[in-house]
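Backbone-to-sequence.
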């Protein structure tokens, strides 16, 4: 991938000062612009770079004025605005969003496991000598604490969130779970995902 990055200069503040006379026309009307460089990634500011620098000019005659005292005063006052930090802000927002959405998924999973319904589909993860494999079960009957389910036909070597187009739930064999057991399986991570409101695209309705 081609990454665009580099340094740019941005104006961080503009001031008008009536405390100093212009050496050219003697008017008390100076304009001070304070600049600062920043590093950008894809032209979006990431971090400020270097020190601030002020450009002083006269609003009356337009002359550029070199006055260290004025420059320094405004370089010290001007604060680097937040938009010089857009990348870190975006990253923080993104992480916060991911954490929030993950917590919500966890909560929903727990609620579905606490109150299983016919039609629920679970992804089951099995660990065998450091290798994970995945399969699915679909609940077909719930009687008291006993849950009966069909399992799918394939075994997946990586995490998947739907059945392969040739895969289906096998009606020839029934699996039994107990309600306390599925709670333990969720806790241990053996139940990896829980699906309730799915559509036909995931193949969860295919039973043969
Ligand atoms: Zn002037």
């Amino acid at each position: 991938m081609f990454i665009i990055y580099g340094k740019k200069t941005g104006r961080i503040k503009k001031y008008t000062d009536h405390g100093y006379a212009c050496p050219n026309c003697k008017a008390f009307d100076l304009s001070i612009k304070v600049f600062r460089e920043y590093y950008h990634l894809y032209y979006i500011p990431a971090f400020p770079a270097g020190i601030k620098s002020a450009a002083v000019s006269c609003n009356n005659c337009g002359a550029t004025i070199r006055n260290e005292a004025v420059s320094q005063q405004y370089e010290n006052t001007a604060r680097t605005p937040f938009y010089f930090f857009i990348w870190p802000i975006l990253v923080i927002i993104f992480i916060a969003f991911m954490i929030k959405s993950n917590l919500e998924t966890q909560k929903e999973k727990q609620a579905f496991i606490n109150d299983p319904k016919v039609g629920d589909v679970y992804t089951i993860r099995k660990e065998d000598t450091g290798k994970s494999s995945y399969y699915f079960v679909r609940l077909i009957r719930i009687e008291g604490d006993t849950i009966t389910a069909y399992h799918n036909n394939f075994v997946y070597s990586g995490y998947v969130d739907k059945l392969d187009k040739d895969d289906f739930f096998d009606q020839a064999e029934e699996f039994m779970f107990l309600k306390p057991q599925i709670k333990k399986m969720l806790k241990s991570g053996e139940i990896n995902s829980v699906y309730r409101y799915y559509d036909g695209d995931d193949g969860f309705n295919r039973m043969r």
